[in-house]
């Protein structure tokens, strides 16, 4: 086997790290995985405790799009079924002039289409530049915020509201998001609002649980990577498990940590200056997911979408467990950017009932709430944000450095993916990529 005799340490047991570790083990490497939390999965986190009727919902990565082949093939390989969800697609909820919230189907709202139409010229120039982030075209779009662009084109209130609603997708307000990231989304072949969507039957965490089970004792929980050095053809890692500190030596290291954690790990010798800056300056979006279990699925009405984007402070919402049986149901809210702050302020002042009141227009009644759980990702010590975002201060030309190997160090994670950044699919693809890079480096180095 191509990696037999080689040892590889993988730091981070999210989807990216686990996929890399599984590939590397299959290539014959002796693999060790270290994970700082007391569980695997990272930002894939299915919550079961507290909900009645054996129901569950996703506190992190939730929907899988039809064209996300890497994660869908992984599920197939692991024998996990994918169930179709939210087949009515997303609608759009926004207050009318009198302040009453109306939910309109996406086809009627046409908000996405309008954004796409307004961006058409920029998207064309971006495609001409072959979507390269090291081109002046990207540099120019990258330094402008979406808010500035809206001002520059004299956008009306409807277009502004649609762009504000995008904070449920990018986890960033128009002021925080670079025009480049918006153009990048709108110049994909597929529209950003997905077509067919799926979840893993029984919970998305079954993906990471099965991967971890296959890796068995190679996975070490509650073990934090503290520092790394590369010297004389090996990598040394210092690790902390509770009060004990250990050193581990390996031939290669895959760093599958979110950038806010990666930049806290001292690396000797230092990464090239641009690579260091690429990691150090990458912001992550604020995102709070609130899962509300009610005695009935009052939001279901014939022809009405079970998912919506919105500029509301409670964020975007959708049925969080459509595929599960039972009269009760879980409604999920994802509040991104300043909506995350607003959601947390509502909870501080009014308790969870303030959020339920914010869903009154959909038919939510306070008495029908049976359980709720919440994850505020910007306060999570091991991710420090929902997912990466490119703001107007980030230099687009640095992006390629996020995935660039450095000697015996390899980088994986959602934030390193070019096509699927911010998605579970991006994490899976990056894990496969990092493992393939280790293999190629090893083969070239050993003269095979
Ligand atoms: C609220 C929310 C909603 C989302 N919705 C969707 C969605 O609908 N669809 C979709 O496809 N994606 C979604 N995503 C994104 C998706 O969840 C992520 O892209 C993906 O799970 C990231 O995987 P990863 O392996 O790159 O990182 P992570 O899952 O964060 O894994 C990194 C691991 O490294 C560990 N770690 C950190 N520091 C250290 C250290 N020093 N030593 C050891 N271990 C360490 C962490 O504990 C973590 O387990 C969502 C994310 C969030 C937060």
Write up this protein.
The chain is an alpha/beta fold. It has two domains: about 5-45 and about 200-285 and about 390-445, 3-Layer(bba) Sandwich (FAD/NAD(P)-binding domain), CATH 3.50.50; about 90-195 and about 285-380, Polyamine Oxidase, Chain A, domain 2 (Alpha-Beta Complex), CATH 3.90.660. It has helices at about 15-25, 70-75, 105-110, 110-130, 135-140, 145-150, 155-165, 165-170, 180-185, 205-215, 260, 275-280, 340-350, 350-360, 425-445; strands at about 5-10, 30-35, 45, 55-60, 65, 80-85, 90-95, 100-105, 195-200, 220, 225-230, 235-240, 245-250, 250-255, 265-270, 285-295, 305-310, 315-320, 330-335, 370-375, 410. The strands form five sheets. Strands 8-7-17-18-19-16-20 form a seven-stranded mixed β-sheet. It is globular, with a radius of gyration of 22 Å. The chain starts with 6 loop residues before the first strand and ends with a helix. The mean pLDDT is about 95.
The averaged pLDDT comes out at: 95
Q: How many structural domains are formed by the residues?
A: 2
Strand proportion, as a percent range, falls in 15-25%
pLDDT < 50 runs, ≥5 residues = none
Total beta strands: 21
Give the proportion of residues in helices: 25-40%
CATH topology of the largest domain: Polyamine Oxidase, Chain A, domain 2
C-alpha-based Rg, rounded: 22 Å
């Amino acid at each position: 086997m191509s990696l037999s005799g080689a040892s590889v340490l993988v730091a981070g047991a999210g989807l990216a790290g686990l996929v890399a570790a599984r590939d590397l083990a299959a290539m014959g490497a002796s693999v060790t995985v270290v994970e700082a939390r007391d569980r695997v999965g990272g930002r894939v986190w299915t919550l079961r405790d507290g909900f009645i009727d054996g129901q569950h919902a996703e506190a992190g990565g939730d929907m899988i799009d039809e064209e996300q082949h890497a994660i869908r093939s992984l599920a197939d390989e692991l024998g996990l079924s994918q169930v179709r969800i939210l087949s009515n697609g997303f609608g759009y909820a926004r207050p009318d002039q009198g302040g009453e919230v109306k939910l309109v189907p996406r086809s009627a709202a046409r908000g996405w289409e309008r954004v796409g139409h307004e961006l058409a010229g920029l998207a064309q120039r971006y495609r001409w530049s072959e979507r390269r982030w090291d081109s002046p075209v990207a540099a120019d779009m990258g330094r402008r915020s979406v808010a500035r662009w809206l001002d520059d084109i004299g956008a009306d209130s409807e277009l502004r509201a649609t762009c504000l609603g995008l904070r449920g997708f990018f986890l960033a307000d128009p002021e925080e998001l670079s025009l480049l990231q918006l153009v990048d989304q709108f110049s994909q072949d597929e529209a950003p609002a997905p077509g067919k969507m799926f979840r893993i039957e029984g919970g998305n965490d079954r993906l990471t649980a099965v991967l971890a089970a296959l890796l068995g004792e190679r996975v070490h929980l509650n073990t934090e990577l503290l520092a790394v050095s590369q010297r004389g053809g090996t990598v040394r890692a210092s690790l902390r498990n509770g009060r004990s500190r250990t050193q581990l030596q390996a031939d290669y290291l895959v760093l599958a940590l979110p950038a806010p954690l990666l930049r806290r790990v001292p690396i000797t010798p230092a990464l090239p200056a641009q690579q260091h800056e690429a990691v150090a300056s990458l912001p992550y979006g604020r995102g709070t997911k609130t899962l509300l279990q009610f005695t009935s699925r009052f939001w279901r009405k014939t022809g009405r979408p079970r998912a919506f984007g919105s500029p509301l402070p409670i964020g975007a919402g959708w049925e969080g467990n459509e595929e599960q049986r039972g009269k009760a149901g879980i409604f999920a809210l994802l509040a991104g950017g300043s909506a995350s702050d607003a959601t947390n302020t509502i909870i501080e002042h009014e308790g969870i009932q303030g959020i339920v009141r914010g869903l009154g227009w959909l038919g939510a009644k306070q008495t029908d709430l049976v359980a709720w759980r919440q994850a505020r990702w910007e306060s999570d010590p091991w991710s420090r944000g929902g997912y990466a975002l490119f703001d107007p201060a980030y230099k687009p030309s640095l992006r390629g450095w996020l995935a660039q190997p450095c000697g015996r160090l390899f980088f994986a994670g959602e934030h390193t993916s070019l096509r699927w950044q911010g998605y579970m699919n991006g994490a899976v693809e990056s894990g496969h990529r990092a493992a393939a890079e280790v293999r190629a480096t090893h083969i070239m180095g050993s003269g095979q």
